[in-house]
Amino acid sequence: MHKCEIEFGKMKWKNPVTVASGTFGLEYADLFDLSQLGALTTKTITPLPKEGNEPQRIVETEAGLLNSIGLQNPGLDEFIRTDLPQYRKFHTNLIVSVSASSIKEFINMIEKLNVQSGVDAYEINVSCPNVENEGIAFGTDPEVVFELTSQLRKATEKTLIIKLTPNVTLITDIAVQAERAGADGLAMINTLYGMAVEVRTKRPKLHSIIGGYSGPAIKPIALQNVYKVAQAVSIPILAMGGITNSDDALEFIIAGASAVAVGTYNFVNPLCTLEIIKGIEDYCVRNDMKYQDLIGSIQTKG
Amino acid sequence: MHFKKLPVLKIEHINKDYFVLGVRDKELTQKIKPGHFFQVKDPASRIPLLPRPFSVYKVDNDELEFLVKIIGEATMKLSHLSTGQDIQLLGPLGNGFPLVSGKKVLLASGGIGFAPMPFLEHKLKEAGNEVHFYHGGRSSNDVFCDSVENCTDDGTFGHTGFVTEYVEKYLDSTHIDIVYACGPEPMMKTLTIMCSKRDIPIYVSMERVMACGVGACCGCVIKIKENDSIVYKKVCNDGPVFYGAEVVWDA
Ligand SMILES: Cc1cc2nc3c(=O)[nH]c(=O)nc-3n(C[C@H](O)[C@H](O)[C@H](O)COP(=O)(O)OP(=O)(O)OC[C@H]3O[C@@H](n4cnc5c(N)ncnc54)[C@H](O)[C@@H]3O)c2cc1C
Ligand SMILES: Cc1cc2nc3c(=O)[nH]c(=O)nc-3n(C[C@H](O)[C@H](O)[C@H](O)COP(=O)(O)O)c2cc1C
Ligand code: FES
Predict the structure, then answer these.
(1) Residue B115 Cα to ligand 3 middle (Å)
(2) ipTM score over 0.90, yes or no
């Protein structure tokens, strides 16, 4: 039996599969033992509680999902009090996704979390508006990403993962700056901007008009982003975007990802991560390959 | 909560708009309370992507049924299934209706809001309640059994007019301890106003478009009055049943 163990930053994963932030919670612990996953990733937490956006918040469109949840979450203190002790019960890595509106706020969050046990990594969600930079999302400006990552690097020894948005012109520039500033890994991609209109009423289907698009429809877009970035950096990539089964996951791994995450498809089949773990292991056995050798094994020549 | 693929045991078309879908599974039926729902999907079709929520219509020993109205693509595809084909189920989900015993109870449903009522009626009667059941539909097509007080907008079956008119008359003539409702929002809002005027508690089963169905995505929220503020609650997890007076209607 091939075990597809990996190292991701300072973490050791028993298999290369986790869940994407915001799409999977403790609710699913009722269904299977979450310790079976290589890692668990929390919903994005902000310094203070956030009530989220006005509904309508979700719309299904062709092979994908539009959402504008607006980072609804209980805030950092409540997360530490209520959710973290429950996450600690699982024997796997815990990646805490965080977001804030200034570098100082990000650092404060990391400092509070550093002293908690059971946190293995931070995933920095930089798709939120940055008030220090006149409302531009942190993740769209390479210099801002460099500055934020450098400061967070000084603030923690734990694994630091920067989650990239695809809604930029040159994602490799941003990835390279995150690596230069000391990130241990990259998570990609976050949702793409999308929209849907109700023709009968001429109204946008989402209250926020524009939302984030995810699910099978975005897989080719995510894949080329992962492929491009894998050519440009040497830190590991946690890939996500439309993964539904082990073949989807293998595409990303062959294109250069070290690990994968499932988001939207958890809503369709909450057990799909387990099927993906098995599918990847079976592939390695069938091809008599070490998992490490599979990463980035894409054949583009000849 | 369970995630299962089960063969369709029964698919029965009532008319062009409605059908009943049945499966057999003891583990599931043992856990179901009135008002629970399942996230249901035809696993063979990739589009639409997401499962759809359906209330439990009937539970009989190890058999479980849904009453489904054909609305769009997912319900249309489910209606084309044959017995023996697999369907995918996640559930039971939601809070369910809080049950009472030894009371005078009124059930009011509209259209496909009928779906959770027969099982609720059965459990309420089992617990020694006196149950009065009013159902309203647009036409005879939207009426599902003749053992209840049926009303149709066009008068093609039962009383002519909105179900709310007949419920109001009934509340004026008879003492009722508690009301349970499921149907279009304007109907549930009207019933809530009627009940609060008469100091009768009312529970309503709400509908929202869902993605996960379990409370993980925060997609299905509605506004609920809590203490002196208005908060978002998840229809899938905190509901779908809410205390009528706490719902912020027309939000
Ligand atoms: C808790 C709960 C229990 C339900 N129980 C039943 C039931 O027992 N029987 C039954 O027939 N239906 C029930 N519904 C409604 C059912 O889920 C929708 O009719 C179904 O999702 C429509 O899917 P579709 O793909 O056929 O239509 P779509 O193409 O998805 O939708 C067609 C139209 O219906 C709207 N719609 C989509 N989903 C919903 C929804 N969940 N609620 C209201 N409108 C929606 C869309 O916005 C669109 O305008 C329930 C809904 C909830 C939330
Ligand atoms: C309902 C929903 C909520 C999400 N919430 C978050 C979030 O809180 N933080 C975050 O970094 N990404 C969030 N995402 C993005 C996912 O983590 C993931 O990057 C994206 O959906 C692409 O993967 P998928 O196609 O497998 O869903 C959310 C996605 C969805 C569908
Ligand atoms: S549908 Fe996901 S939280 Fe209710």
Answers:
(1) 21
(2) yes
